Amino acid sequence: MGHDKATLVIDGEPSARRLGTLLAGVVEPALEVGPQCSGLAAIAEEHPGEGPLAALAAGWSALSRAGHGGSVVVLACDLPLVTSAFIHWLARYPGGRSVVPLVEGRLQPLCARWSALDLRRSVERAAHGARSFRELLDEMAPVTVGPQDWAGVALPSVLADADTPDDLERLGLSWRPGGRRAGRG
């Protein structure tokens, strides 16, 4: 992208802050794993930069220490079309298994509801040096959902991610580089 995705200003609002507000409006507790860009309570990874599996494990560990034992909704900051209605639908999906959207043949573990069992597995895998979701997803056997499942709740494109400036422009979004990340303090 050439810019920190969390601080990109998309349609006038920093990406991470917008998504943090949406998430907090649906789930409790809501937590950011990162440098406090979302406006949510934030925790830092023990070893930043080790990838999304390590971030997931760090978030689950923090939530567990705080007494949360249920499933969690995971939401990456590069999903500019995600809506509150979609997050609510995902969080309330029936059953206790993990729910992972499948878009164009690809699982979307960074906008998914993770069960406590699968979150514990993520911590174990990360502790043993794993960095990829691939093996964990194979072991999980999550419920997979596609655009046909959330029809009426959100547009099929709700999970379009933005990895390049061209992606943002293709999605019809105005954007500009954001400011510096918020500091801890």
- How far apart the termini lie comes to 28 Å
- In the CATH hierarchy, the third-tier topology is known as Spore Coat Polysaccharide Biosynthesis Protein SpsA, Chain A
**Biggest sheet record:** 3 strands, antiparallel
Give the tally of structural domains.
Answer: 1
The sequence of SSEs as H and E is: EEHEEHEHEEEHHEHE
Q: What is the secondary structure topology, with strand pairs?
A:
Elements: E1 9-10, E2 13-14, H1 15-24, E3 31-33, E4 41-43, H2 52-65, E5 72-75, H3 84-91, E6 99-103, E7 106-107, E8 111-114, H4 116-127, H5 134-140, E9 143-145, H6 165-170, E10 175-176
Parallel strand pairs: 3-4, 6-9
Antiparallel strand pairs: 1-2, 1-10, 5-8, 6-7
Brief overview:
By secondary structure, the protein is α/β, with parallel strands linked by helices.
